[in-house]
Amino acid sequence: MTEDLADTDPPEEPGTRRPELKHDAIGFFDALVIGINSTSPAYSLAAVIGPIVALVAVYAPGVVLASFVPMLLIASAFFYLNRVDQDCGTTFSWVTRAMGPWAGWLGGWAIMMTGVLVVGSLADVAVGFGLLTVGLDSWAENDLVRQLLTVPLILVMTAICVIGTEASARVQNALIVAQIICLLIFAAVALYRVYAGTGSLDAVKPDIDWLNPFGAGGAALTGGLLLGVFMYWGWESAVNLTEEVKDSASAPGRAGVWSTVVLVVTYVSVGIAVVAYAGPAFLADNAAEEEFIFAVLANEALGGWDWIVLLSVATSALASTQTTIIPASRTALSMARRGALPGTLARIHPRFRTPDVSTWGVAVIAIVWYLVVNQISENALFDSLTALSLLIAFYYALTGVACAVYYRRHLTESVKNFLLIGLGPLIGAGLLAWLLVESVIDMADPANSYSGVSWFGLGPPLVIGIVITAVGLLVMVAQRFVGGPFWRERRSVADPDLVHGETGPPSEPPSVPPGRS
Questions:
Q1: What is the number of other CB atoms lying within 10 angstroms of the CB of residue 308?
Q2: Phi (first) and psi of residue 68, to 5 degrees
């Protein structure tokens, strides 16, 4: 049985109940679309496929496939933890239950900071590719023009998030259709030209051996996996909406798992088409171009129809700009209503029933970060994105461990429990912890950064990661001195009924932590 927590919610005065997030606002399909869009598939492919090919040549599709494994295992952890606690704070709430408030707080902080680091860059890419789509190439190359357009774009997408989850879902549904159609058209044309022999580059016909992730050797595989994990990051946004999804005990978790499956199919198929059409030598030579390699390939493969691919990347980044705000703002809401952050962040708009203060807060801080880092250099912005891998690997691994710890008394009850709730999440956590260590080692060398400069003898991405962690520790200690019931919460274990599939009401999971509405 679940252990009682140290405190309970204070009684509410009649007529003073706080507004809650809007229950049953969206369904499984909407959550699935949001989970897929949060990864920004077209942009992720454009940004990562070149560097991966530079490392592992034609085995890039295999590395992308291998990167899917830890994501699927962690998605399993999200599914089972969401069954016991449908809290929009996800990792923060679950890790607090399983491992205590200090570990939970750090997991929540990592999620919030990923949003701050990446939102500005995604909006910038959406603006840049949008301008390229309509032929305004000179505007796309002008940093000032892009920044002047990026800031209002972030504000518009934030406003949509605040107006309501249904509005966000409708926007996402439209964007995912445009994105997937454009990607499939590109892949189909590219493969047709490969087999027809009409390509303008050094085309290579696909081979089943390309799916072997070990084809290029261990060292190359490590570097490729570090990049591959970034491609999948973001699918858990579907679970952050758990309090607003119908059948919240299972639908958000299923949406998270299926998001990773849809992504691996998309990434591997389009990746094969890109490698086959361009050839590994061209991609490796142009790896430094990152996302703009798709602009080059689009022109080569589609000629005057290259706007199809440019539009795909633009809509991909635009969709992810909006959805990336969701996990950061919902996590801030969850932390605030339990006393782990200032209570102002727990405010829910009485009409729209969305966390307006935390949503706008994430957007404003992200805008400030984007503008300040851009003043340093464009490379500094890329370095800040590289630092994302540290935060991503940390909170994913933490969630995997929390799943096994929380269900620890039930892992030997069946083979299914042992594999899906215990061993699988732990393997996923172990792989991500290994990648985290490899990232730290790699980022310690300034030569491996985009800027190539040294900050205090280390690479800028690692310094950014250290600073974010240090600031988080200071804020956490400050909040601990403020006190509150959150810091007295005790660890708990899973209720047997939840392990065997009997879930409680979505709005009131067992042992509701202090501060829950």
A1: 18
A2: -70, -30
φ and ψ at residue 245, rounded to 5 degrees = -105, 140
Residue 186: partners with Cβ closer than 8 Å, 6 or more residues away = 270, 273, 297, 298, 301, 302, 308, 309, 312
Task: Using pLDDT thresholds of 50, 70 and 90, give the confidence band for residue 121.
Answer: confident
pLDDT at residue 134 above 50? Answer: yes
Paired residues of 26 in beta bridges: 245
Phi, psi of 419 (to 5 degrees): -80, -45
Cβ-Cβ contacts under 8 Å for 416 (sequence gap 6 or more): none
DSSP state of 213: T
pLDDT for 331 beyond 80:
yes
Q: Which two tokens stand for residue 296?
A: 């080059």
Provide CB contacts within 8 A for 183, sequence distance 6+: 41, 42, 45, 266, 270, 309, 312
Helix axes 251-278, 60-84, angle to 10 degrees: 170
Q: What is the pLDDT of residue 238?
A: 86
Residue 9, pLDDT score: 38
The dihedrals phi and psi of 304, each to the nearest 5 degrees, come to: -70, -10
Alpha-carbon span 391 to 315, nearest angstrom:
25
- pLDDT tens readout for residues 173-212: 777 777 777 778 888 888 888 888 887 777 788 888 888 8
Give the tens place of pLDDT for each residue, 52-64. 877 788 888 898 9
SS (H, E, C) 40-76: CHHHHHHHHHHHHHHHHHHHHHHHHHHHHHHHHHHHH
- Residue written as tokens 């400069």? 453
Residue 32 CB partners (closer than 8 Å, separation 6+)? 238, 255, 258, 259, 262
Q: Which residues pair with 245 in a beta bridge?
A: 26
Q: Nearest-CA neighbor of 398 among 438, 437, 425, 422?
A: 425
Answer whether residue 255 shows pLDDT above 70.
Answer: yes
Dist CA 493 CA 57 (whole Å): 46
CA atoms of 55 and 228, how far apart (whole Å): 12
Residue 417: DSSP 8-state: I
Residue with tokens 């897929």: 36
Are 183 and 263 a contacting pair, CB within 8 Å? no
Q: What distances in angstroms separate CA 137 from CA 129, 143, 145, 319, one per listed residue?
A: 9, 12, 11, 22
Question: Are the C-beta atoms of 90 and 114 separated by less than 8 Å?
Answer: no
Examine the pLDDT at 504 and tell me if it is beyond 50.
Answer: no
User: Is 455 in a helix, a strand, or coil?
Assistant: strand
DSSP 413: S
Instruction: Identify whether the C-beta of residue 113 lies closer than 8 Å to the C-beta of residue 391.
Output: yes
Please list, residue by residue across 123-144, b when 16 or more beta carbons sit within 10 angstroms of its beta carbon and e when fewer do. Answer: bbbbbbbbbbbeeeeebbeeee
